[in-house]
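LOG
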Amino acid sequence: MSRKNLVSAALIIFSVVCFNSAEAQPKTDALLRNILSANKDSLFQLVLSHPEAYRLQIIYTQINRDKNNKPSFTNYYFNVDSLFYFNPASTVKLPLAALSLEKLNEMGIAGVNKFTSMQFDSAYPRQEKELHDSTAETNYPSIAQFIRKAFLISDNDAYNRMYQFVGQQAINRELHAKGYASTRITREFMGYTDDENRHTNPIDFINEDGTAIYHQPMQYNTDSFDFSHTVKIGNAHYDSNDSLINEPIDFTKVNNFPLKDLQQILQSIVFPLSVPERQRFNLAKGDYAFLKQFLSQYPSETNYPKYDTSQYYDSYVKFFFQDSLHHAMPSNIRVFNKVGWAYGFLIDASYIVDFKNKVEFMLAATVYVNSDGILNDNKYDVETVGHPFMYQLGQTIYNYELRRKRKYKPDLSDFKIEYEKRDANDTRPAIKDADN
């Protein structure tokens, strides 16, 4: 790493420590600390040496199989604390996808499933209609298409529409009932007020000929939230009018998704039988298969949406394998994951499979890279610090797993998925600029 970048990275230590509002009692395990210490990369060690400044948290999940191929999971932590806030950004799309499929199953309405066409109306100030989706083969929105877009490139509209379908009240009630009491999802990615976020659009499910199957009226959340834990980050921030405000940005009332909850929800989707029954989502076998496919499928393999692969390359949302010099993914590896990035935070929660070497593990991490301490200025150290750190972290754990001895090698055939193939004869223009 260049001296210039090291200096830039070091500046973050002062700018963040001064405004660290978390009352953290972080958990760190010696095994993970020792594994991470083996990587002598200067940037990697700089971030590890200042976990509070970089708001760094890591969960490494070791997976061991018995003679019947049943997996067991052991989590190892580095600086993990549920009160140590990070903005979850797009990682909230993961539970929204599962909750959307769960709601469809529990509605039990003939002709309404994840592939059914939908149309979104408006019934409250600033709500936006969505009657068609040009990225879909049917030209209509659907839950399936939202999940594809949310996972393939982390599309924001897809999240907003799933939020509107499930509803703010049901999102939080269901997650809390599953044991994720610290998780709070209160916001669409629309810049809405608290009141506007409580109201969600009316929705129609329709047949191919446009006739109605089911109408869901506007929903309103009457439940209250616990905002007693104040979270303020940074030295200054730009507000919605692009005015510089010389005080920290207040994250107290926005989405909150602790890393432990993110890791556990991913595990519950990839390995549903490994978590207590109350934590599982009510999904059909085909739903789990669909989620696993698009958690791991690449934009280059997908026809709908058809993304420009020079912009949305295979490792675009695979932070632990996103090498700045090479955007291709190793052919023997698949990553089932969800990432997020916003306000200088980068987050990734992954289940990683190496079919050639019979290796599997989970890894979740968040890091904050904002050396000037100003939020909403679009000047974050993502390319110079964030992505290089996440790549080094992923490779450190992966290389440890390659060397780790296992009593029983895993049978990973359940994760060998028949992915789509891009149609070489498709002349439609590719999507180059999505809101994500």
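LOG (cont.) second protein
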Amino acid sequence: MKIGLLTHSVNPRGGVVHSMELAHALFDAGHDVTLMAPATPGQQFFRPLRCHSALVPVASTPADMVAMVGSRIDAYVDHLSLLLEHTHFDVLHCHDGIGGNALATLQERGLIDGFVRTVHHLDNFVQPQLMAWQQRSVVQAQQVLCVSRLWRDVLQQEHGIAAIDVPNGVDAARYSPTPHAKDSALAQRLGIRSNGPVLLCVGGVEERKNTVRVLQAFIQLRAQMPDLQLVIAGGASLLDHSAYARTFQALLQASGCSRDVLLTGPLADADMPGLFRLADVVAMPSLSEGFGLVVLEALCSGVPVVASNIAPFTEYLQAGDCSWADPLDASSIARAIQQALADNDRQRIAASAARLAARFSWQRSAALHAGIYQNLTAREASPCL
């Protein structure tokens, strides 16, 4: 099949990683895949691609969210309108509201028969226009997919949409506990210390990631573990998290722990496997996730994990896979971190990683997607009775 996958950015966010890994797995299975994303001048995908790719030109990102999203929708519509004049896709599949709205517009214009939309999670935007665009991207899709039972149930109960649950995967060859010669150089370059435990959070400072409560937990732990270092990696996002970041910075300055908290900002993709190996525990007490790829990546790297005791984490993690935390309670997060550091059983972590990697592979995800695509194309080709 000829498949077009649309994602919202070239940056290493969860939905973009999902789109890229799915594109590679479909390509390796023999499909003709093109991964598309908006890109400002000079931008490229954060990781080299094996499949075809297309960068949709957009101007420098506007500060206003509605203007930014609207401009990217328009850019996709313009790009695909020209592309569809000489290229036919069996399936067009988007992973966010930007691509979804572009495809909905093309569908309304009669340029495509339908599209597939994966919902990783839904946001609660303050701006009505963003909420309207998000809703349109879902309800206009021919088929909606999601990455967890949690979001499948939300779509059914709150939107009346029968979505299909198609989970993520993890690249267990890329994320490995085997040390690499470059790990120590990475630690030195970033400023990660070796004289105490390292607590790693991935995703930057934002409310959904619960970073303020992680900092509160870290401040509590410093009383017993003065050598503990908090590393917060990543943060490339199209959304505006500045108000939450100011709250985080105010707490950090008042705590007196600034020298022990490292914010790396967005990192090169090649740094991520080594970064996991440098950590003593990875904390992901998120308030909301579509799936939580970081958990699988950390476990495959041999690192104990703290996760929120809520779905979707409770769907695929068993007792012993992680240390559970109440994401609304900083003290609970602190206790879970302590437990993870104290109960660092490498053999148990390896067993958890092996079981989860066998269950969640990109090859299996691609096969499930291909079956859904084939059913849709067969339905379209069937004559009306």
